[in-house]
Amino acid sequence: xxxxxxxxxxxxxxxxxxxxxxxxxxxxxxxxxxxxxxxxxxxxxxxxxxxxxxxxxxxxxxxxxxxxxxxxxxxxxxxxxxxxxxxxxxxxxxxxxxxxxxxxxxxxxxxxxxxxxxxxxxxxxxxxxxxxxxxxxxxxxxxxxxxxxxxxxxxxxxxxxxxxxxxxxxxxxxxxxxxxxxxxxxxxxxxxxxxx
Length: 196
Hints:
Layout: H1 6-21, E1 28-32, E2 43-49, E3 54-61, E4 69-77, E5 83-91, H2 111-126, E6 132-136, E7 147-155, E8 158-165, E9 173-179, E10 187-193
Parallel strand pairs: 7-10
Antiparallel strand pairs: 1-6, 1-9, 2-3, 3-8, 4-5, 4-6, 7-8, 9-10
């Protein structure tokens, strides 16, 4: 899905309204669902920290991931017309605070439960379940407001994410956002995809 299409813009604006209404703007953002490498059934994107302020993202069998913090969930419609969240990107490293690690569907009786239900309905109503996922706002490294993450392919089944100055962004496509009312769209890009 083209994240800059009119359909995507309408969805992102509705997401900003929704997450703000529930007071969860500091907890959840959006991620564009990766199409490359493809995510086979039973696999997840495992994100690990490297010592040089880069992240390594590899395709691994879901059963091989012990522990970690789920950071991205996609909405999946069921045959009976309901929907649920599927965790697609666990983070396994000490740098991520697990205090806000609750799976959206595990928030019974809380504002998060109502938000999770409303988010799933919003995704399906806009028809973007193959394009956008719910992302938990988290920090990997100490970064300034002038730095962002840029993702590039390292191999057929591996991605690298590096910290770069925001001013160096030229042609990279935003793929992850957090709510920030100082930006015109209400969403600040925090991660980009390198075109090559």
